[in-house]
C-alpha cells in the first residue's frame, strides 16, 4: 500500500515555526535537501505547510518520525499524509483562459499532470475545478 501513499505531507499549526526553521527541521528529520529532494509550500491562511517529496521516500515512515520528533512536538505541529484526490481547484487564472488550454496544461507530464476527465471554468472567480481520471496526475 505504501506505493499508493501520497508524496506530500501536511504540517498543521506551523505558526510557531518560521518558514526557514521549518525547512531546516524537515531537512534534519528526513536527511534530504529542500528544493532538491522536496519542496515546501506554505499556506499561511490556514496555518499549514505542505512538503512534497521529489525523491521517493516512505512518507508514512517520515510522518511517524515527525510525530515523534522533539522539536515538532515543541512547536506543537502535527504531520499527516496529504489525502490523494482526483479533483483540484486552480485559482488566479487569466480571464481569457479556456477549458481546452487548462486540459492540455494539466495533462502535461512536465507539469506533474495526468489524464484529465473534466474541467469546470468559473470565470467570475477566475478559477476552475479540474478532475483527473485518477489521483496520480494532480501533484
UniProtKB/TrEMBL annotation:
Domain of life: Eukaryota
Pfam families the record matches: RRM_PARP14_2 (PF23245), RRM_PARP14_3 (PF23085)
Coiled coil spans: none
Protein name in the entry: PAR14 polymerase
InterPro entries: Nucleotide-bd_a/b_plait_sf, RRM_PARP14_2
Residue ranges of the TM segments: none
Domain PARP14 second RRM: 5-83
Gene that specifies this protein: Parp14_2
